[in-house]
Amino acid sequence: MTSNSFYPIGLSGKAWTENERNQWRASQSQQRLYGDDVLPRIMALADRFEIRTYGQLNYAGEAYTLYALRNGIPDQNLPTALITGGVHGYETSGVMGALQFLETRAAEYAGKANLLVVPCVSPWAYERVNRWSYDAIDPNRSFYPDSPAIECAALMELVAAQAGSFLLHIDLHETTDSDESEFRPALAARDGEDFVPGAIPDGFYLVDDSGNSQPAFQTAIIKAVEQVTHIAPPDDDRKIIGAPVVAHGVIEYPQAKYAMCASMTGARFTTTTEVYPDSPRATSAVCNDAQVTAVCAALDFALAHA
């Protein structure tokens, strides 16, 4: 058995054991602080939103409190919308876009929708600019009963406790160059599989749910976002990240099959945004603006078609 040529941890063809997971954990270092970047902005919203604690993480003595925000006591006569960011901690505009939406646009939906916003689902990974949780688990493939990902279990419990059904869930993500240089190679090494290189699309796109396709909803979001940033074109095979393009800037995944975050509410309207922060045509401000624009376009369409 030989070492992986594409990743420094693990042996070729052999899935990781706890030994390799410990090596991986040891290789992760704090690069930013949840307590500096995220928590002060959440707490600054206390006069406008109800801030709820919905869980606690404790990894090797490092504790993180999980927060959700609501725009007041839920009104049973209004539809409910969930906005999540930071399921993958390294996808910065998911977190910052959710916070920016709360700070700048959420007030527009008072009396129109019950908003539940979770800006940073995975704070440990946020600090380490990583995709996985402390246990080398991908949260966006772990939204299922008895999930081993504490982040997912806590969020599912929060959602289950909400009265009534959800009309909308928009989950804010990024596709980055590090997906190809770090995270896909790590996944292959963790699972003892061969790494097959892929391509990173340049631009914004959406992931619809093939089990609950809502093409007009996705198109409305794309039309709004393309006023802010460019939309990812398909590759030569008419695909984006290996999935067929079903409309301009839209691909589909069977989200429940993959246990993705956007599948957990059973909402009529669901989508996963994918911003590309490494594009020479984008900046962090543009990426954050694109996320906010996507949230507002999703809310506006869903409320108009409730």
Automatic annotation (TrEMBL):
Domain Peptidase M14, first and last residues per copy: 30-306
One Pfam family here: AstE_AspA_cat
Named cofactor requirement(s): Zn(2+)
One term of GO molecular function: hydrolase activity, acting on ester bonds
PROSITE patterns: PEPTIDASE_M14
Example GO BP: proteolysis
Keyword hit for Lipid biosynthesis: no
Keywords: Hydrolase, Metal-binding, Zinc
Protein family per UniProt: Belongs to the peptidase M14 family.
Official protein name in the record: Peptidase
